[in-house]
Each structure stands twice: as structure tokens, then as C-alpha cells.
Amino acid sequence: MRDESLESTDNLPEPDVIAREIVEDLRAALEQFESVAGELGEAAG
Question: How far apart are CA 25 and CA 39, in angstroms?
Fold first, then answer.
């Protein structure tokens, strides 16, 4: 089965919008990793 919606680029946001969203997602992920790392450090020490 093919997803026909993936073949059309007409509905995609502009590249700068996509890039900003990726940066926001990466920052949020980094904050979560830092939080987990901090918690692991507290549990070990």
C-alpha cells in the first residue's frame, strides 16, 4: 500500500518552518536528556 499524501509536496510547510520545528524538538529532547542525566547523577551520588 502506498500513501499518496507523501508524494505531494504542495501541503508541506516552508523549509524554514520545518527547520524551526526541528530545532524546537531537538531543544526539548536535550532538556529531557539533561533532566534524566541529572536524576541519574543524584541517584548515584
Answer: 21
